[in-house]
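To: structure subgroup
Subject: Chain for Friday's discussion

All,

I'm putting the inputs and outputs inline so they're searchable in the archive.
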Amino acid sequence: MSCNESQPVKENVPAKGTYGYDAAFLRKHVKQTIELFNEQGARVLVTPDYQGRVMTSSADKDAGNSFGWINYDLIASGKFKPQFNAVGGEERFWIGPEGGQYSFYFRQGDSFNIRHWQVPPIIDTISYNVVRSDSSSAVFRQTATVNNYSGTPFSIEITRGIHLLDKESLTSRLHTDIPDGVKWVAYETDNAVRNMGTNQWKKETGLLSIWLLGMFTPSDETVTIVPFKNIPDAKNYVTDNYFGKIPEDRLLTSDSTLLLKCDGKHRSKLGLSPVISRSIAGSYDYKRNVLTIILFETDTAGTYVNSKWELQKEPYKGDVVNAYNDGPLEDGTQLGPFYEIESSSAAQELKPGDTQRYKQVTCHFEGDYAAMQNMAQKLLGIKLDSIKM
């Protein structure tokens, strides 16, 4: 063999943790993927196979950080679990309430515990139809009938659109400029539920809300940030005991902000009433200098479903925004680990043929710490130096 014979060129494989790695993985294991993109380097990957969810995104093309949490093992298996499929994805469509007498996740008579919890197939395993798609947007649709804990059937048509935002649209929503040198990606989802049945939905038999949840990768250096209106009785509009009282070292209050440690090691959930919501929440990853923000709608006079896992005295005094940190269950197993930032629509008494809509913007920013601190101060009203947990 000649000493000068050329060696085979190694294939350029994206590093794990990058958008390129996750996009290649999903294209290999998921039947349909749709990529939204712009010339500034923003990328958003969505799939109808998982209910039109946003699986992940990037602010710097393939080489950029992948912002969504991906369950590689579950997706690669090609199989569905019977109870819930935590495939990941940084924004997915669900319906509320989760618990209570009008729950869509428990059967009548069952106890409100993880053993009886069952996610409806329409938001877990059923694929959606692609209505249309191009380089900046995609629209998906599907129909189903779901029953709540009290036995009320809901015939629904779900339409979900994802639209990549340009810089002008994003700064308009943020009411602030994006500093030079900061990379970013932002998209808005437009979610609609139509009453396809023959009866009006009524409070007395249960209502339905649009619930949007984002799964992200936890770390010991990540904190979720939920600003609130610091009115005199604000603590009465905070729920911190969904899965037991959150330990004091994991949930801190800083001025008008709630801070939840998101390391994926202790199962805990935080909720805010629309009475004190500021229609914005976020998280900060100190290790990667990544700021995540969600912007959502709040109807202070609206009816919000209660998702606590119990029969409820007040089923319509629920949350508009939640933060969840995953952790081991009682049997030692774990869904993730991941953490979530969530928001919900008000619930409406829809007549047959009527539709309710709910929008949310998700955006990620990355850059040097000084720039991120400046943005966090403007958007969330906090100093990153003072909230690291």
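Points worth raising on Friday:
The domain at 32-386 is CATH 2.70.98.10 (Beta-galactosidase; Chain A, domain 5).
The two ends are 60 Å apart (CA to CA).

D.
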